[in-house]
């Protein structure tokens, strides 16, 4: 006898029956064992990256202009060639060191503003391109000397929903810490409802899903706050596919299949010698509900809202990561 599938609720919202004040929720500090978080971070850092680093959002590197960023202390310039392909290489002109990121791009040709040296992406005059990859959402660059690993032909890219059925946005923030501290923040889901009460409630950290789906990772049951007592409950799974990336997969509940990718890109020291890290977070939302087509049609309006929500969370989470680096660098970190 086959089971009758329960109809999907018309709305994903639920009303919390007995919402507790922030100070009365169950403490999670006993569950958030420093050794458990440290082991998760150690495991993530041991995974190969193939020397690939996220440069930024793919849409930020548009035809007709150059994009510059220092990655792991290496000045990088990126642009689109005549065919629209991503090109990346050293950001200093090989002639006299001018900043190539300030040069104009015409017909896929980047010209140095100082003396007009022209680059089409091929090796020229001592300038050698870096391997680059556009995955449709993020732009990556491979820096073999900075990475120091065995190179991989492509970056380790997490599974994502099909672009045709999703709405995606990318938010970038910068903090005084190292990528390890960003990864540690994301591998500590126990802090969610305490540190971000405006976004999360009723958070419980569980084990891997019983059906064996995505056996590795930290599973979390949590409710996303909407307004008042209205919430959207989901089950999320946090995994670290490579040393500078942590991914949150929605594995049950509304938006199943959606992902939030957090990529930590080392930049270089600031004027005080502190490390700087760019957090480049990609949010890819999807839903099986027929009405999601309307959300996709409204993507230009939704993307700024998605970036604003990520920015609010990362104002807090970068404070966590920066504090962790400060304690680590002074030998005071309890983990």
Secondary structure elements and pairings:
Blueprint: E1 14-15, H1 34-45, E2 52-57, E3 67-71, E4 74-80, E5 86-90, E6 105-106, E7 109-111, E8 118-119, E9 132-134, E10 138-142, H2 144-147, E11 166-175, H3 179-186, H4 192-195, E12 200-206, E13 218-227, E14 230-242, E15 245-253, E16 259-269, E17 275-286, H5 292-297, H6 299-329
Protein name: Methylesterase
GO molecular function, one term: 2 iron, 2 sulfur cluster binding
InterPro entries: Cholesterol_7-desaturase, DUF5914, Rieske_2Fe-2S, Rieske_2Fe-2S_sf
Q: Strand count, sense and closure of the main sheet?
A: 8 strands, antiparallel
| Parts with pLDDT < 50 across at least 5 consecutive residues | 208-215
Number of strands: 17
Structural category is alpha+beta
Output the CATH topology of the largest domain.
Answer: Alpha-D-Glucose-1,6-Bisphosphate, Chain A, domain 4
Identify the CATH class of the largest domain: Alpha Beta
Second CATH tier, the architecture of the largest domain = 2-Layer Sandwich
Order of helices and strands: EHEEEEEEEEEHEHHEEEEEEHH
C-alpha Rg, in Å?
22 Å
- In CATH, the homologous superfamily of the largest domain goes by the name START domain
| Terminal CA distance | 53 Å
The assembly state of the depicted protein chains is single chain
Mean pLDDT rating? 92
Strand content: 25-35%
Overall helicity: 10-25%
Number of helices: 6
Number of domains: 2
Shape: globular
């Amino acid at each position: 006898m086959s089971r009758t599938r329960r109809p999907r609720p018309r709305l994903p919202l639920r009303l919390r029956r007995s919402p507790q004040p922030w100070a009365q929720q169950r403490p999670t500090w006993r569950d958030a064992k420093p050794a458990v978080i440290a082991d998760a971070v150690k495991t993530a850092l041991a995974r190969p990256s193939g020397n690939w680093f996220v440069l930024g959002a793919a849409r930020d590197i548009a035809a007709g202009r150059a994009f510059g960023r220092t990655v792991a202390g290496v000045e990088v310039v990126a642009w689109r060639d005549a065919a629209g392909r991503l090109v990346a290489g050293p950001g200093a002109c090989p002639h006299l060191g001018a900043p190539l990121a300030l040069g104009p791009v015409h017909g896929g040709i980047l010209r140095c503003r100082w003396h007009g040296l022209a680059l089409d992406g091929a090796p020229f005059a001592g300038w050698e391109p870096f391997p680059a990859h556009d995955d449709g959402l993020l732009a990556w660059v491979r820096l073999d000397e900075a990475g120091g690993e065995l190179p991989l032909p492509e970056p380790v890219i997490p599974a994502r929903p099909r672009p045709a059925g999703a709405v995606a946005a990318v938010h970038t923030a910068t903090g005084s810490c190292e990528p390890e501290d960003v990864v540690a923040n994301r591998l500590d889901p126990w802090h969610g409802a305490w540190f971000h009460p405006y976004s999360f409630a009723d958070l419980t950290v569980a084990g891997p899903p019983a059906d064996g789906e995505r056996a590795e990772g930290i599973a979390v049951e949590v409710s996303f706050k909407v307004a008042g007592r209205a919430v959207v409950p989901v089950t999320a799974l946090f995994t670290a596919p490579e040393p500078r990336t942590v991914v949150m997969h929605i594995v049950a509940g509304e938006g199943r299949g959606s992902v939030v990718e957090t990529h930590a890109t080392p930049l270089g020291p600031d004027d005080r010698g502190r490390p700087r890290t760019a957090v480049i977070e990609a949010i890819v939302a999807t839903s099986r509900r027929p009405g999601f087509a309307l959300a996709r049609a409204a993507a230009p309006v939704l993307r700024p809202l998605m970036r604003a929500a990520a920015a609010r969370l990362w104002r807090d989470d970068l404070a966590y990561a920066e504090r962790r680096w400060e304690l680590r660098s002074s030998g005071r970190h309890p983990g």
